[in-house]
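User: Please run a holo structure prediction.
Assistant: Happy to. Please share the sequence and the ligand.
User: Here you go; the ligand is S-adenosylmethionine.
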Amino acid sequence: MWNERYTVDKYIYGTEPNSFLAEHAEMLSGPVLSLAEGEGRNAVFLASLGLKVHGVDGSDVGLAKAQALARSKGVEIQTEVVDLGMYEPEANHYGSVVSISAHLPSAVREKLYPLVARCLRPGGLILLEAYSENQLARDTGGPKDSDMLMTRAKIEREFPNCEPILLRELEREVCEGTYHTGVASVVQFIGRKKA
Ligand SMILES: C[S@@+](CC[C@H](N)C(=O)[O-])C[C@H]1O[C@@H](n2cnc3c(N)ncnc32)[C@H](O)[C@@H]1O
């Protein structure tokens, strides 16, 4: 499904970074693991700040576009095709993990998120933005499956080893290409791995 979506010339989520990420990027340290990186807009932005970025995604078509975007901007990113349902990032390795619109079934999150916390160095940060369950009532993007949508309670439950620095649900204008456009309900989270 994602390869099909990405098989077009244009960048379907645009080439500008997610705005929540851009607003808080100065807090992040490398290396950065970017989950479900897609076409590379966020990884390329972080690399342009001088951070080492490892972008993972299930779509080889998306990641090929990510590498093309990196070349066009004169930066380097590392990409890897992975199934997040099976992925085991290196433990105690990353300064930060970024997860933007990486909507995954709870069965996948249950296995992945403890490994995400484990892959951070002590004091490392996870920065996540996802559509909230309240987005189901809207037609402005995101999966039509509440299991894949987030709430503050889900974040607190699924990241017990990350102290929230910021955790909020809000409505905001999203303007990110073809599929994410309009007022949307999102959950935003920045958590610090407990020592
Ligand atoms: C809505 S796009 C977001 C892309 C990117 N994070 C962005 O903000 O532009 C969701 C991405 O999740 C990836 N994805 C979904 N399920 C996945 C899985 N099980 N394993 C790996 N990637 C997955 C898709 O390939 C797609 O690139």
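Residues 2, 13, 18, 36-38, 41-42, 57-59, 62, 82-85, 100-102, 104, 108 surround S-adenosylmethionine (CB under 6 Å).
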